[in-house]
């Protein structure tokens, strides 16, 4: 505070002075922990003195005095196992450390420690206190090796099966489940040098699944004795040794199944010349049954023989020819014929295997060459053009070219008119020997010989059209016709035949038109009243006699007003006029009808029309209100048929052929 001294008048009498008031602290605040719950962890098996965690409390009192000096201590520990003092706390810093050995997660996983903070330097008599909870979790270390639940396991597997679980290996590990300290890894130490098996770990149960990854053969190994070992993903903690129970034995029995016979050499290739006779033994294509411990028989049959050239012995697999093998056949691909055979045993169930036999056919000279081309044309005068000829042979080298082209000596006209000039081993030229040859088509025989051993020859015919040519050596149009073998006389005869045929067709058309005109004229001459053929005579008159001519036509006319109709006695009306009454409502067709509504629309319209009295026709029945007072004519019932026979109908014969039928019916009564 600043104090001022003044007199009664307010005058300053002394200099101002400062007065200092010191507030002395009293212990009126308890220590307060930053958190009410502290979480820490420590590995199991930790040595004494291992740091765990730190707790902190603050006191609002003066920290330079005892009022603000906080000290810590552990009040309780739960559980008190294996000792009631497993932890200690630094009284000044609040650091919690282990004080005893024996932390084991498998026994105690968590400790709850109550920590007290007291001021007045921890004097419980004068100081103020507060508490907090420290939760200490004991973390797992791999201090427990996995151990098999039994020392031996067994399983069974069929031969030739893969991805089959043979046995399940169960282990026990007391470490924390689904952690690297608990997850098991299995290894096969011995008993499987060929690698037929592997052990996979089930991620849920931690079991080891012995699985076949490479097919086993009963005939090679009937059983396997495996030694397996289990370990964890994480290495064992320092000082922990593997248990004797971390190894076990697995016995796997292999069961025999019926295996299919197989051909040791598949595909089997043999070489032979084509054309071997039927019944020739080619080879023995036998199969092996791997089931050595089963007494089974193997039978053979054909599975694929495209040309049906082969037979196989069902017992020993000997293959013979059923037809002549032809290298030039369409069934041959690159000189190789391929057939597939089936070998089947009599096991339960039966099994079969296939084998392919490839026959390489060596070519022989069995095809004579063919001349090419088959047709050609040449000018009737030499030195204008020639015909290049060659040959085609279905065989292959050396049974093909070079070819020899020759003209036969018979008939003699061939060598007289034609000559062949050799160009090379495959080509030659055919030309005229004489100065002029009449236009036409000539069959020129040529002998073609190949170079096979022995050589084959073939006499081929080439059709040569000899024709007049222009200066360029091309056949003219007239020359082409002449070369086709038609002379001038033949051409004229053909033209005459065509003219005659056209004349006959024209005459036939004129005759048909004239006949149609006559039929039409004849029909016009016939009186339609006299023509009774297939005619229906329609009569429109119903005269009622002479007195019926006096009738009132106004009764039959449409009245201009409807009063007399409305006032007419009920039951008497004219049905040829439109009735008066309420008209029914016809259904209205929708603008866009649904296909299913068409039938309903038609049925509703039909129902409305049936019930509509105003709908036409009105004149289906004519009822006349006035028919006259009588008739002087007699009743038509008096026109009875007479059977006396006194009527003479001979005059019907004079009426012409149209009444002949009627005259025969009535005029011939007396003769009958």
From TrEMBL:
Membrane-topology annotation of the record: Single-pass type I membrane protein
Annotated localization: Cell membrane
GO biological process: adherens junction organization; calcium-dependent cell-cell adhesion via plasma membrane cell adhesion molecules; cell migration; cell morphogenesis; cell-cell adhesion mediated by cadherin; cell-cell junction assembly; homophilic cell adhesion via plasma membrane adhesion molecules
Function (record text): Cadherins are calcium-dependent cell adhesion proteins.
One GO molecular-function entry: calcium ion binding
Keywords: Calcium, Cell adhesion, Cell membrane, Cleavage on pair of basic residues, Glycoprotein, Membrane, Metal-binding, Repeat, Transmembrane, Transmembrane helix
Entry-linked SUPFAM superfamilies: Cadherin-like
Domain Cadherin: 1-33, 34-148, 149-263, 264-371, 370-478
Gene Ontology cellular-component annotations: adherens junction; catenin complex
Membrane-spanning residues: 478-511
SMART domains attached to this UniProt entry: CA
One Pfam family in the UniProt entry: CADH_Y-type_LIR
Main location: membrane
Superkingdom, taxonomy of origin: Eukaryota
Designated name of the protein: Cadherin-4
């Amino acid at each position: 505070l600043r104090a001022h001294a003044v007199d009664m008048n307010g005058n300053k009498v002394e200099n101002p002075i400062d007065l200092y008031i010191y507030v002395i602290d009293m212990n009126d605040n308890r220590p307060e922990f930053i958190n009410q719950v502290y979480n820490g962890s420590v590995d199991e098996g930790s040595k004494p003195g291992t740091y765990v965690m730190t707790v902190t409390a603050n006191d609002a009192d003066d920290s330079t005095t005892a009022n603000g000096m906080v000290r810590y201590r552990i009040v309780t520990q739960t559980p008190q196992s294996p000792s009631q003092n497993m932890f200690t706390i630094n009284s000044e810093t609040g650091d919690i450390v282990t004080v005893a050995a024996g932390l084991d997660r498998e026994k105690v996983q968590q400790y709850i420690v109550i920590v007290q903070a007291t001021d007045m330097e921890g004097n419980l008599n004068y100081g103020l206190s507060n508490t907090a909870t420290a939760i200490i979790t004991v973390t797992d270390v791999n201090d427990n090796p996995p151990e098999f639940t039994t020392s031996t396991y067994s399983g069974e597997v069929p031969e030739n099966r893969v991805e089959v679980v043979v046995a399940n290996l169960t282990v026990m590990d007391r470490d924390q489940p689904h952690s690297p300290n608990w997850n098991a890894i299995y290894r096969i130490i011995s008993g499987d040098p060929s690698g037929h098996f592997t052990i996979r770990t089930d991620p849920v149960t931690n079991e080891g699944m012995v699985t076949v990854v490479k097919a086993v053969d009963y005939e090679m190994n009937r059983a396997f004795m495996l030694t397996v070992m289990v370990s964890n993903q994480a290495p064992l903690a320092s000082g922990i040794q593997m248990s004797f129970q971390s190894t076990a034995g697995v016995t796997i029995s292999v069961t025999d199944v019926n295996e299919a016979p197989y051909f040791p050499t598949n595909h089997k290739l043999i070489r032979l010349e084509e054309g071997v006779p039927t019944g020739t033994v080619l080879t023995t294509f036998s199969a092996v049954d791997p089931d050595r411990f089963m007494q089974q028989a193997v039978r053979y049959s054909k599975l694929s023989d495209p040309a049906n050239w082969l037979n196989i012995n069902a017992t020993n697999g000997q293959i013979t020819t059923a037809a002549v093998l032809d290298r030039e056949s369409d069934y041959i691909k690159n000189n190789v014929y391929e057939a597939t055979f089936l070998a089947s045993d009599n096991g339960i169930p039966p099994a079969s295997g296939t084998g392919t036999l490839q026959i390489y056919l060596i070519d022989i000279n069995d095809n004579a060459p063919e001349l090419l081309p088959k047709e050609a044309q040449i000018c009737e005068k030499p030195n204008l053009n020639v015909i290049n000829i060659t040959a085609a042979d279905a065989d292959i080298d050396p049974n093909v070219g070079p070819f020899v082209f020759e003209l036969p000596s018979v008939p003699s006209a061939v060598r007289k008119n034609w000559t062949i000039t050799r160009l090379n081993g495959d080509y030659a030229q055919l030309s005229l020997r004489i100065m002029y040859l009449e236009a036409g088509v000539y069959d020129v025989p040529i002998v073609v010989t190949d170079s096979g051993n022995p050589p084959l020859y073939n006499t081929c015919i080439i059709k040569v059209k000899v024709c007049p040519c222009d200066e360029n050596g091309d056949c003219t149009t007239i020359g082409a016709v002449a070369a086709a073998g038609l002379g001038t006389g033949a051409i004229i005869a053909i033209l005459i035949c065509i003219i005659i045929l056209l004349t006959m067709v024209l005459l036939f058309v004129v005759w048909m038109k004239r006949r149609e005109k006559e039929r039409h004229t004849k029909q016009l001459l016939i009186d339609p009243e006299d023509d009774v053929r297939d005619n229906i005579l329609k009569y429109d008159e119903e005269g009622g006699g002479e007195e019926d001519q006096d009738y009132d036509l106004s009764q039959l006319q449409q009245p201009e007003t409807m009063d007399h109709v409305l006032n007419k006695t009920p039951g008497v009306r004219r049905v040829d006029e439109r009735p008066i009454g309420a008209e029914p409502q016809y259904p209205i067709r929708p603008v866009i009808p649904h296909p299913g509504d068409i039938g309903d629309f038609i049925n509703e319209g039909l129902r409305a029309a049936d019930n509509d009295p105003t709908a036409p026709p009105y004149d289906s029945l004519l009822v006349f209100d006035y028919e006259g007072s009588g008739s002087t004519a007699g009743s038509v019932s008096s026109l009875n048929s007479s059977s006396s026979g006194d009527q003479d109908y001979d005059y019907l014969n004079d009426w012409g052929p149209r009444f002949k039928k009627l005259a025969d019916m009535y005029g011939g009564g007396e003769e009958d």
